[in-house]
């Protein structure tokens, strides 16, 4: 790789700053025609050089990613688990960053002239009249005044710096969409209440705790004289918001590999997916906090209310938009079977248009895309042909992989190539302490409260693990690099980088140690709900009936209502799965129901086709409700009858009991035949291979 | 769709041209702090508005594509073949273009001020000092002097105009790569000589014929006074080069659907893929033709030789680079099995880096990508796991579909939104005539010459069909929109657009009529080589032996040498398929051969694993050569022994004879069991579906 970087630097292209002698009298000796021809050639050459440089820059990243992939392959091959691909990408990025920063010195170009164009505004587009010809320039950004002089030295570093909006508009959306699209696990829905609590309440708590602590830290710094610029309370809150977005991708990868407890996995994954959305909207509402009047950093109730309104408005708007597009896609794909390419293309385009539509409407595209992904997984996925299901999964898996590793390697690179780092030891130490306290204030109190209501308690070792798995990643980085104009933001950005490095390497690398230290069981049979099956066994042997009532009361009533509505009405309308509407709607709506029900749904009546009936495992309860309406609606066939037998199956705290049953493996195998298949990640287990070339 | 465009225009953002009073005395009343804060807010708002506008613009295209997909689905459903998806995309683009152009009028912004910054050069980057703050601007392009005044009205139209380089650097590469990656059909290799002749010789002939005719036309126009600007001979040649790139995607889609003769398909597809590469390099060499001295448009031998050198250098450089990256990928993927995601990601990244590397080195990325695709298909594909084979195929299929339809819908749009159209009736008529003559001068003489050498003659109805199928498409458009600065280029661009529209709609739409008119057989059993199998039958009944010698002489000796080398050495080294090296290398190289041979290759000895042994169908010849080296090398097992029986099987001109054998269907079925599977497009025939959610 080091050898390959050479051409990138060889073809290095220097910024030519042309002097503008203010009030120059145009002095040109040669004929205009020839001159313009020469000028055209010069311009073309410049553009070509610039294009070559851009290609070389991008090539660096592509080769970095390639190198990461090769090393990862080696690691996977040797079952080396201390370093995740993202951590590795960062290391390679760091190395390249060091080389670019210290290894390469560009000789000064003598022909450079500096231009100082005195204008009284900075429009986004500038028209420049060069000897009668008009050239259009677009605003790239502001440059620090003290950097203008050594712009030349930094030019190469600035060249490998991407527009921060690239992260938000190109790299993050596929990552977030993929997270939403792969969220469709029954364990997520089973733990939905807790996940929502951690993601919403927890993120807000964490944001404000960190914000307050940092404000204390900053005030202290000001008094000690360590602060080199303004740092307002809103800045502290903003910092709290951006570092509250957790991204335990490293931890989850290890969880997946070691088959750690599924509930813990669901809690962590669900929290990290949703708190990204909360953090984005929260940070943008904090930025929008603008009290009127002269001093723009005082407390003002109206401005606070406005910010709160923005939070609610943007979040619900993005949510609604994402869900709406998902539903539209589901309806379209309802009809669009048989043409896989068209299906996949439509799926991709509709998901992308969610992002664009949200951005164009002033909502947050990333949030919209997340909820669009969840909706697509819930409805559209069922309408796709099996091939398209694979295709879409694989497509977004690939995009996610590439975007994630790109971001992490860029993070490593930018630690050395970013121009305006402000490393303040006191701020950094303060931030780490605040982060720790903020995470603790999120996990432990909420877990305590949730445990009051949960039957399947979140045990203390799970809580410690969740505390430990509060890694920061792509979203935190993207939020912090978005605006690095002020001193406060620069300090935040530098600190954020260190936080990401520390958590990904140390916490990510120590996951296996932490798991064994907390004595968290590994090797749980993938996503198959071991504990439920065990508890079924327990129930059957202990005798059912007595516990049914209590379970029914404990499962969230709101969620049960939603599930019924979704299963009886939305699923049949939007997808080919689920029971026919004629069975679920009251008899008076007969014609309407027949009109809306797809032919496939009637076929479903006989056989188990509803892939989502495993969404909730305690569906003994649901089949009861469902059974009230009509007797013949038992769409999930064998499954529901199995579910009835399971009624009241308590989902956990049997984890310790399981060892008492030596023959549980046998029961599990027996039960698995009844339970529907799992929605694990596509397990590419050798589809019958027809295409040979 | 029409309703949805509204927000795009509502959020319209106008270019603010700020006056630069040269030598202004900076007059600012308010405090600098507050002022800069206000300025920041204004800048942020502007940036946000601009971002929203960009999102809305992109959304238009995404919705256009969505609409195209839905309509195409309808067409496919109803088996409506007169309009291909690309033609449809153009129509939708046209409609939206008309609306944008005539339907929407932006009210004039009164606050606009015009800036005239007198600078004596147009650097790619401009630093502007706005009241002490430095802003960086990047060059976007030149604006016509007469447009500066009504820049405002056109702003919206210019907003939906993409940077022409987007086509070359983002949209074309996946299209071209996909073409190369799906070129791996044995019929392509069987007709390789003819395809190369059409693509190289034909394109050069066509380019020069069209160039000369257009020069005549332009000279005439000048005398009549119809010409409004300069139009040099190099411009004419350039026009000839860009319109020589054929793109019969519409025709090929119909061929595929109707199962037209495979040789005709291979000839057309192969020609269109390769002549794109030739046209790109040819046009860039013509642009590079720069005689020294004052008059830059005279004839000069040195400049001509230099251009010729550039053509050879760039083409061979791009070719070498593409092949090299393909081989590197093959070598890497040799080891990288078992991790499908990593495999696919690596494949994608390596293919992309080919493009970037070529661009960074000054070669042509598109050409490199084409040959990279062909190499990947030939070697890397065999090393991929079956899942990755599917994944990569599907990925590039999707990218190709999206990019192609995007380009065509943009073409439709740009007919109305492009600002500098120059429609000159005389030039347009001349261009159509020249195109017709140029295509004829390519097809008919070359076919005559090729028929002298070909056993399987290209019959006259095939020639007419090839003549008819000379559609122009994405490549021609991308080449012509790349530079629209001068009058000549603008006229070329407008004319090219009309040429694309005409050929895609008229020629594309008339394909089925033309097929029946030329009495070209349809419904040939897909890619199964019907004619060969029939001829085998013929040979067997007629008796073999007598014809073997003549066939051996007729098949291209150069190609035979290459095939032997490839099959015996390259394939075993680079892929898991092919015979083991120990068998093909001379005994003295034993240890080296054992070192280089993969374990799989030894397994291959027993069973047929070489998916490419069907590359050449007359491999009776090859197995003879091959048999000379060692007796036990018969890697392709049953197939080769079948092939020996087929020796001398003349591949065609039995097409008419076939009807004489009523029972040929039976023979075909019998033979097909022996022949290896075909490399048709991935036929997604229900892989065993394991993943359910």
From TrEMBL, chains A, B:
Q: Provide the alphabetized UniProt keywords.
A: Antiport, Cell membrane, Endosome, Ion transport, Membrane, Signal, Sodium, Sodium transport, Transmembrane, Transmembrane helix, Transport
Give the transmembrane ranges.
Answer: 58-75, 87-104, 166-183, 195-215, 310-336, 348-374, 395-416, 422-441, 487-511
One Pfam annotation reads Na_H_Exchanger
Q: Does the keyword Lyase apply?
A: no
Q: Name one GO molecular function term.
A: potassium:proton antiporter activity
Gene Ontology biological process:
regulation of intracellular pH; sodium ion import across plasma membrane
- Mind telling me which NCBIfam families this protein's record contains? b_cpa1 (TIGR00840)
The protein's name in its UniProt record: Sodium/hydrogen exchanger
Q: What species is given as this protein's source?
A: Oreochromis niloticus
């Amino acid at each position: 790789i080091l050898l390959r970087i050479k051409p990138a630097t060889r073809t290095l292209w220097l910024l030519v700053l042309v002097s503008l002698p203010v009030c120059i009298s145009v002095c040109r000796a040669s004929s205009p025609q020839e001159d313009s021809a020469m000028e055209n050639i010069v311009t073309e050459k410049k553009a070509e050089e610039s294009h070559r440089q851009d290609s070389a820059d991008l090539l660096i990243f592509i080769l970095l990613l390639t190198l990461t992939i090769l090393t990862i392959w080696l690691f996977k091959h040797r079952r080396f688990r201390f370093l995740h691909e993202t951590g590795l990408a960062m290391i390679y990025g760091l190395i390249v960053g060091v080389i670019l920063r210290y290894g390469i010195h560009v000789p000064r170009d003598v022909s450079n002239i500096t231009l100082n164009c005195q204008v009284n505004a900075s429009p986004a587009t500038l028209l420049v009249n060069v000897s009668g010809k008009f050239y259009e320039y677009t605003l790239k950004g502001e440059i620090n005044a003290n950097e203008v002089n050594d712009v030349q030295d930094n030019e190469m570093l600035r060249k490998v710096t991407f527009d921060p909006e690239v992260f938000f508009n190109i790299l993050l959306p596929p990552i977030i969409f993929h997270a939403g699209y792969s969220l469709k696990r029954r364990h997520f829905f089973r733990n939905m209440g807790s996940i929502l609590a951690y993601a919403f309440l927890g993120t807000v708590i964490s944001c404000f705790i960190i914000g307050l602590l940092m404000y204390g830290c900053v005030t202290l710094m000001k008094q000690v004289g360590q602060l080199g610029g303004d740092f307002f309370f809103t800045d502290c809150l903003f910092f709290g918001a951006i570092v509250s977005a957790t991204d335990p991708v490293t931890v989850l990868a290890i969880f997946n590999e070691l088959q750690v407890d599924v509930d813990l996995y669901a809690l962590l994954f669900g929290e990290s997916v949703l708190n990204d959305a909360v953090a984005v909207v929260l940070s943008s509402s904090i930025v929008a906090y603008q009290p009127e009047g002269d001093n723009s950093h005082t407390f003002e109730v109206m401005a606070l209310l406005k910010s709160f309104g923005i939070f609610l408005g943007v979040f619900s708007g993005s949510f609604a938009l994402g869900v709406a597009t998902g539903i539209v896609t589901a309806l379209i794909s309802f009809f669009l079977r048989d043409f896989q390419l068209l299906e996949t293309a439509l799926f991709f385009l509709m998901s992308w248009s969610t992002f664009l539509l949200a951005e164009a409407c002033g909502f947050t595209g990333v949030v919209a895309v997340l909820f669009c992904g969840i909706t697509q997984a819930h409805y559209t996925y069922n309408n796709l042909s099996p091939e398209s299901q694979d295709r879409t999964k694989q497509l977004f898996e690939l995009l996610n992989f590439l975007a994630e590793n790109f971001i992490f390697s860029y993070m490593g690179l930018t630690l050395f190539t970013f121009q305006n780092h402000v490393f303040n030891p006191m701020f950094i130490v303060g931030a780490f302490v605040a982060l720790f306290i903020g995470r603790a204030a999120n996990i432990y109190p909420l877990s305590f409260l949730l445990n009051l209501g949960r039957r399947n308690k979140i045990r203390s070792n799970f809580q410690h693990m969740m505390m430990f798995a509060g890694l920061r990643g792509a979203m935190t980085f993207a939020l912090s690099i978005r605006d690095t104009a002020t001193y406060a933001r620069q300090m935040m950005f530098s600190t954020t980088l260190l936080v990401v490095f520390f958590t990904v390497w140390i916490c990510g690398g120590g996951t296996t140690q932490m798991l064994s230290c907390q004595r968290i069981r590994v090797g749980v049979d993938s996503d198959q709900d071991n504990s439920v099956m065990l508890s079924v066994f327990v129930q059957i042997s202990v005798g059912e009936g007595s516990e049914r009532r209590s379970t029914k009361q404990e499962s969230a009533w709101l969620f049960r209502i939603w599930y019924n509505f979704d299963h009886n009405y939305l699923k049949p309308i939007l997808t080919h799965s689920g029971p026919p509407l004629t069975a679920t709607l009251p008899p008076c709506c007969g014609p309407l129901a027949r009109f809306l029900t797809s032919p496939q749904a009637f076929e479903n009546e006989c056989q188990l086709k509803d892939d989502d009936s495993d969404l909730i495992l305690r569906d003994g309860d649901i089949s009861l409700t469902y059974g009230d309406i009509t007797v013949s609606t038992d769409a999930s066939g064998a499954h529901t009858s199995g579910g009835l037998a399971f009624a009241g199956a308590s989902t956990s705290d049997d984890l310790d009991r399981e060892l008492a049953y030596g023959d549980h493996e046998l029961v599990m195998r027996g039960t698995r035949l009844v339970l529907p298949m799992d929605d694990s990640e596509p397990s590419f287990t050798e589809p019958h291979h027809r295409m040979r070339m």
